[in-house]
């Protein structure tokens, strides 16, 4: 049976999650809104507009739809500037080696990311061609923990659900994988996730789980 692995991007293959944090923090400071790392952790895997709603709700702040769009655009501008120097050396430890090993084993690979910047990041990391399918924030209408992003990736790979793994750093992503009936694997911030089917400390440990 063909096997498939769907990778989340931010926080799994590359630490762009830190750049998201810095961009939100800058925007929040300019608006006199409270924002810290604990609140930032709730934004992992969550879409840009849903993330902004979480920050505004936490601050009990009311903005018009127009003002919210402007704030989200501003945050994304800060984020994009921080991505300009991104290059293959920024990939997380063991990421490239793991992608190569999975390819050699004939495993189908996909990206399942909430980010509208995913393709830009993959190009910067020079790994776009590793993936048989890329589903990102431009392809979905529902944010994780909704299973849409992973169901679309699994369908695009054409593998059975029982042979399709999802590797995630966010609790919202683990929940999305479970709701899609795929095999969830937690890493980094989700290394101790109670809902994950498997947890790993480093990407190369994926190979043992899949074989
Ligand atoms: P953008 P992932 C997610 O990516 C990030 O974890 C989350 O922090 C971010 O808000 C979301 O993408 C949207 O990103 O503003 O670039 O469209 O973890 O699902 O790869
Ligand atoms: Mg992530």
Features:
globular, 211 residues, six-stranded parallel beta sheet, 9 helices, single chain, DNA polymerase, domain 1, Rossmann fold, 2 domains, 6 strands, binds 1,6-di-O-phosphono-beta-D-glucopyranose, alpha/beta, binds magnesium ion
Largest sheet geometry:
6 strands, parallel
Order of helices and strands: EHHHHHEHEHEHEEH
CATH class of the largest domain: Alpha Beta
Q: Any idea what the radius of gyration is?
A: 17 Å
- DSSP helix count? 9
Which small compounds were modeled alongside the protein? Answer: 1,6-di-O-phosphono-beta-D-glucopyranose, magnesium ion
Quick rundown:
This protein has helices at residues 16-30, 37-41, 48-58, 65-83, 95-104, 118-125, 148-157, 171-179, 206-210; strands at 4-7, 108-112, 133-135, 164-168, 183-186, 198-199.
Structure overview:
- The protein is of the alpha/beta class.
- The protein has nine helices and six strands, in the order βαααααβαβαβαββα.
- Strands 3-2-1-4-5-6 form a six-stranded parallel β-sheet, with helices on both faces.
- It is globular and about 50 Å long.
- Helix 1 (16-30) crosses helix 4.
- The chain is 44% helix and 11% strand.
- The model has no long low-confidence stretch (mean pLDDT 96).
- It folds into two domains: 4-15 and 88-210, Rossmann fold (3-Layer(aba) Sandwich), CATH 3.40.50; 17-82, Putative phosphatase, domain 2 (DNA polymerase, domain 1, Orthogonal Bundle).
- The structure holds 1,6-di-O-phosphono-beta-D-glucopyranose and magnesium ion.
